[in-house]
Structures are given as C-alpha cells and as structure tokens.
Amino acid sequence: MHINTLADKLRAVMPAPLWELFRKLANALLGPLHFSLETGHLRSCLYSRAMDRYGSPLPWFTYPAIQFLCAKNFAHRSILEWGAGQSTRFWASRAESVTAIEGDEKWFKALKNDLPSNVKLHLVKLDLSDVPPGVIEKKFDIVVCDGLDRFLCAQKSINLLKEGGAIIIDNSDGNQGTRPGFGFIELYRDAGFSRIDFYGYPPGNTVQQCTSVFFKADCFLFRGEERPWPPLSFWVYPPEIMEDWQKPSVSSPRKD
After folding, report:
1. Which residues is 78 bridged to in the sheet?
2. Domains (ranges, CATH) in the chain?
3. Angle between helical axes of 3-13 and 16-39 (0-180°, round to 10)
4. Which residue among 11, 33, 167, 228 is the one 20 to 30 A from 104 at the CA level?
C-alpha cells in the first residue's frame, strides 16, 4: 500500500488532534529514513561506497550537487578527473569520454581493469610533473578536482577547460591544498570565475560538506535547457525512465 493511501485511511478514522500528533511524529521519523533509502545513502553507508538505491555509482559530491548534475545532458561532453573512483564510473555512464588522473599506484592498479571502454586512466606523481602531454594539450567540458593536491589540480585545470565549461571541486569548504592563505577560491576569483556552492550530505557520510562549481559566462550547465526534475526523481525511478527529462526543450535547440 502506498504511504499516502495509508495516511488517508488513518486520517479518516483518527480524531483530529491524534492524527495531527501522529502526522508530526511520522514525518520526523520516516522523513530521514525515506531520504536515506531513496537516495541510496543507507546503501552507501553499508557498502562504504557512493551509490544510488540501485547500486549504480555516484560521485562523493553532496546530494544537491549530484541531483543538479544528474539533470544535465553530458552525452557529447568530455570529462577530466583529478582523482579516480566511483565518480569515474558515474561520469563514464553519462559522458562521451572520461580522462582520469590518479596518484595512488595501489588504487590505480585496482581500477585500471575495471573501468568502461570510454575511460582513459593515467597514473601520475603527486606533484603532477609527469601528466601525459596528450592530456595537458586537450581541453575538456568538465574538469573535476577530487583528489591529489587540489590546489595544483586547480591551477592546471584553468587552461584545460573548454569555453562554456565548468570546474567542479569537492570538499571545497576545507580542502584547499598545501598553500595556506592562497587556495583555489582566490585563484579562480582572480581568474574571473563565478562560483556556486552546493551544501549538504554526501553519500555514506553524516557530516555536511560543500561541492563547488566554478564557471564563466555561457556555461552550458546554467543555460536552463533541461526541465526541472521532480524531487529525488533520478533516485526513485530507473535511469531509462528519466531520460526524457534530460532532453532540451523545443525552444532551446542549442547543442554546443
């Protein structure tokens, strides 16, 4: 029985004061549980891995950032990641190509034979001195900084971003590399980027964090071509049911 149907039946037979008390207690207790089940937060906690309710990979971003990104169409987009993992699989299922840079050799070996064919994984030194020329000579639609030295990654990312693209930095509320007093917030502000912060809980975590998106004029993420999604819709329904929501409206035919 659907929870709303059950609530209607109970409301019809309970005295109004008792119903109101029951409703408040039910919302207080069931709301967090419903969120945890529908988003996959509970599953992520149990498996120590970021995933949705179906077990599909999610980035370890905050949930507001995840839902914002899941409403966008990345079918013809290229992604560069500093730091590989669940997010690499997440992007691979949505984007045309993913280039992932990893600095941990043990983690690199664990990942390299378990990634989709549209992913290129590279092992580099932590000082980024050996990033392959084929990477630093390209430009990408989305650059994600979620590993290695975030400040060094943030520096290199500026020249690797396509016009109209965006840079995403996770844990932006407290991880600004090894240079106190000059972090990526100031770096991007001085380079002319705007910033939107997405605060909230990440998968499998009980501490709120921040995921930030840095962008300049005409960023494709903010053109508003996609319709707003129903709350939690990308978790409640399988991906194939929600594909239509990612299609641009008829009045917004841009594809660049």
Report:
1. 97
2. 3-39 (no CATH), 63-246 (3.40.50.150)
3. 170
4. 167
